[in-house]
Structures are given as C-alpha cells and as structure tokens.
Write a structure and sequence with these properties.
The protein is an alpha/beta fold. The protein has twelve helices and eight strands.
C-alpha cells in the first residue's frame, strides 16, 4: 500500500466549547475554515491543545466526523490518539477510520510512564489496528516517555508510521533523527518557539499551536522558511516569538484559546480542571496577545 506524503503546516486545533462547557461544533467549523483558507495542509483535532482527555467517547467521534465533513477532502484530517490504554487507543483508531479520518497523531498511553519495551508495544499495537497512516508524537517533556532516534529506527518496519512530531525541545534531535532514519519519516516540529531553528536544520512540517490565532501570519512565516528567505524569517520570528512562547507553558491551552478569542476566531472557554485565566496572569498574557495583534507585520509576496 502506498501512503501520502505529509508536509507543511498541520495545526493542532482547539476544541471550542460553549460557556457551559458543552461542545460547540459550529465554532470549531468556523475556525477550521479560517485555517484552511489561510493555506494549511492538514488539520489535527483532539490533540493536547484540543483538550483530548476532557472529551468523552461520543464527543471525540462527533468532533472527528464534523472535521471530516467540513474539510471535504481539501486537507487531511488527523485525530490525536491519547487514550489511557492500548486497547482503547486501538478502538478509537478503528472508529476514526470508519468516520473518514485521514490518519492519526498517536501519543503514548496516558498517565502510565511506560518503559521502552512497553512504549514500542503500544505504538505497534495501535499501528496494527488501522490501515491509515499516522504520526508518532514524541513529547517527553509533557508525557514523561521519550522515543529516541534508535527507537524510531527500530519502528521503521511499521509501514503506516509515516511521520514524527518531535517535541523534546532539543533541536539536536533533528540532526540525530536524520542521521538515524534519514528520510524514512516526514519530520514535524511540535515546539512553536523552535520553529525557526528546526527549519534551518531541515524539517518537513510544523504541528503549529499558537499560530492558529494568526493563520495568515503563521502560514506566511512557514513559506519564508520553505523558500530560504531567512532574513525576512528572522525579522518575522522576532515579532512572533512572544506569541509562540504561549505554546510552551503548562497553561498553553488557556493561553492559546485566549489568543484565538482576541483574534476573533473562537472563544476561550475550557473544561475543568483548567480554569479561565484571571488577575495579573490574564493581564500579562493579554498584553502579549494584544501587542502582537497591534504590530502584525505586513505580508508581502515575492
């Protein structure tokens, strides 16, 4: 079986809620349309930024079905797979395949800190549960499980594992992965404020977070890195950097949802145990967002 080549910006989108915390699929759809119109090449729903683990069984499946309907084949729709058990992850993958998803972004089984053998077994079991392609999400900072370049090399015999989302926050990994696995996988970066450095080292895509509040700017910046316009990219990165840093805080969901709200693309409502930002913290984050909005760079094509 041949698999697609995933490249470009695959934003991890928020899940929009009403103020009463119920799912707001219409608001999700409006934001997805804005991102697709800006030129993204994929959508990832129900990832960490999408508050995957606060969504129940039916909500996750409704979210995927709606995203597939709205995208209508214009871009591939991936779902995050972040279940507590391997069996649940396999079941979810099979369900999403039936709903028309184009693939997955698979995380380790949540909560339990698996060792190397358990981690590899989990990913292989999920891969075997579906015929769809998938991206392995490596985030040892957030999930306490690190998939090393040597482990990625060992997984190279899994045919439908076609991409890696590298979020170790160590840019040395980009080169180490290229040495270990060459071009076997599409290599995506998942730490927003390392996008410029990672682009210089050679990546294929970006699972963008903060940039979902600035779709046109985010896409324009990505294109600068693709066409080697490094002076312009560096200048734009200085504007973007404080906004990209919103993705690297433990409250990244609240921070980015507030940015999405300020940009007029959604609302900030989240689900507990997260609480809305308040007081000095809220004012500080609003200051960063509003300064970014007020000083947006002019986007000039060449």
């Amino acid at each position: 079986m041949s698999y697609p080549q995933w490249r470009g910006v695959f934003p991890a989108v928020t899940t929009q809620f009403h103020q009463d915390s119920s799912l707001d699929l219409n608001a999700c759809a409006r934001h997805w349309e804005a991102l697709i119109s800006a030129g993204v090449t994929g959508l990832i729903v129900a990832g960490s930024l999408g508050e995957n683990q606060t969504l129940n069984f039916a909500e996750k499946r409704a979210l995927v079905a709606e995203a597939v309907k709205i995208a209508s084949g214009r871009v591939p729709v991936l779902s995050g797979v972040a279940e507590l058990s391997t069996a649940a992850a396999c079941e979810y993958a099979r369900d999403c395949e039936r709903l028309g998803a184009a693939g997955f972004m698979v995380m380790p089984a949540m909560v339990y800190k698996a060792d190397a053998a358990e981690t590899m077994s989990h990913f292989r079991r999920v891969a075997a549960a579906t015929s769809l392609p998938w991206m392995l999400y490596n985030n040892p900072v957030g999930y306490s499980v690190d998939v090393t370049p040597a482990q990625f090399a060992a997984l190279a015999d899994v045919p439908n594992l076609i991409a890696l989302k590298e979020s170790s926050a160590d840019t040395r990994r980009i080169t180490e992965l290229r040495i270990a696995v060459g071009d076997r996988y599409a290599l995506f970066v998942g730490v927003d404020d390392l996008i410029l450095q990672s682009s210089v080292l050679g990546i294929d895509g970006w699972v963008a977070g903060s940039g979902i509040a600035f779709p046109r700017e985010n896409q324009f910046f990505w294109e600068l890195t693709r066409t080697g316009r490094w002076e312009e990219a560096r200048a734009m990165y200085r504007w973007f950097y404080p906004l990209l840093k919103l993705d690297t805080h433990v409250k990244f969901v609240q921070y980015i949802k507030l940015a999405v709200q300020e940009a007029g693309l959604g609302r900030e409502w989240i689900r507990e145990p997260r609480l809305p930002l308040a007081g000095a913290e809220r004012e500080r984050v609003l200051g960063i967002i509003r300064h970014g909005l007020a000083t947006r760079p002019e986007l000039t094509a060449r």
